[in-house]
C-alpha cells in the first residue's frame, strides 16, 4: 500500500486520527488510573490500621513494619470521633512535597495532577487525604512515595497506547476495505470507461452508462455521460462537415464550368432585339458572375473560413434595388410578400460589394421564406444609414418571428434554422462575412410582430487586413 494512492493515504489518515482521538482519551484515563491507585493505597492503609488496632500491644511492634510495607505507605493517620491518631509510622526518606485531598479535587484538577505526576521522574513523598471506607472514621491520611505511582502510570499508559495502535490499525484496514469496495472500485470503473472512450470517441457503445450507487459518483458518471455524448455528436458532425466540404468542392468545380458556359451565352443576350431581354441581360450576367466567383472561392480556399473582403466604395441603393428585384421575382408565385427600401440615394459605403450582396440576400431570403411559411401577407424592409463610427443596415420583416430553438442556436450551422428542412447556414454565412468586414450582425428583436436584424460596418479599418484596406482608400 503506497502513500501516493487514495487507499494508502486513507489508511494513514485513519491511523493518525484514531491515535489523536486516543491521546485525548489517554489523559482522562491516566487521571482516573492515578485516582484509583491512590484510593487503593488508602484502603490498604485503612485495613493495615484496623488490623494493628485489633492486635495486642505486644504484637503491634512486630506487625507495624510489615503492614506499612504491604500497604506501600510510610505512615497512617486516622481521625475518629474528632481525635487524630497516628496509627502506623515509619521513617520517611524526605519531607512531604505535596498534599492531595481526594475529597475536594475536581476533574480538571485531577487531570492536571496526573500530568504533573507523569512528568516528574523524581521519587518524592506526598500526603494523600481521603474518606475511610464503610464509614470507619472521619478521614484517613497517608504518606507515600511517588516512584511506584509513576511506574504504574507509565506501564498503564503504554498498554493503553499499544491497544490504541492495534485498534487504529484494525480500523484503518476495515475502512480501507470498505473504501476499496464503495469508492475506489467505482472510480476505477469510471477511469476504464474514460480510457475506452478515448480509444474510440466516435463509437456510441463506448459511452458510459451511469449505475453507481453512491450519489456523488452517480452524478459524476451522469456528467461524464453528457460530456461524452456531446463530444461524440460533435465528432460526427465534424466528420459530416468534412465529407460535405469534399462534396461541395467537387460540385463547385463542375458547377463553375457550367456557369462559365452560361455566362458566355448570357453575354450574347445583350445583343437581342427584344428590349426586355436586353434590360434583363446585365442582371443575369451579374448573377452568374457572382455564382462563378463563389465557386472559385470554394475551390481556392477549401475551408470553413470566408476570404478577407476586397473593400471598395460604392452607393448602396443600387445594390439594394437589385436585391429587391431578384427577391420580388422569387416571391411572385406566392404573391404575399412586399419589399420596401429605405436607403438614401446618396449613401456611399465601403465594403466588399459581392459579399455584402450575399449577406443581404441571405437575410432577405430568410425573411421572405418566414412570411411565406406563415401563410399570411407581410413585408420585408431594408433600411440603411450612417454615423460617425460607421454604417448600419437594417433588415426587418413582419413575419411570425424566430422560434426558441433558432434564437438559442443563432448563427450556428445546421442547428439555427427557423424552418423545416433548413440548414441554418444562411445566418452563419452572413455573420462570418460581416465579421470579415470588422463589423457585427445582431438580432435586434424577434417576436410575434416580426424579426429585425442589424448590420454594423465600421469606418475604422484597423480590424481589416492592410492589403484589403489599401484597396478601399
From TrEMBL:
Gene3D superfamilies, sorted: 1.10.287.130, Histidine kinase-like ATPase, C-terminal domain
Offer an example of a GO molecular function term for this protein: kinase activity
Entries under PROSITE patterns matching the protein:
HIS_KIN
Catalysed transformations (reactions): ATP + protein L-histidine = ADP + protein N-phospho-L-histidine
- Pfam families annotated for this entry? HATPase_c, HisKA
Q: Where are the transmembrane segments?
A: 12-33, 156-179
The EC number(s) given in the record are 2.7.13.3
* InterPro entries in alphabetical order: HATPase_C_sf, HATPase_dom, His_kinase_dom, HisK_dim/P_dom, HisK_dim/P_sf, Sig_transdc_His_kin-like_C
Every copy of the Histidine kinase domain together lies at 250-461
What is the main EC category here? transferase
What CDD domains does the annotation carry?
HATPase, HisKA
Which UniProt keyword terms apply here?
A: ATP-binding, Kinase, Membrane, Nucleotide-binding, Phosphoprotein, Transferase, Transmembrane, Transmembrane helix, Two-component regulatory system
The entry's protein name is: histidine kinase
Q: Whose protein is this, by species? A: Paracoccus spongiarum
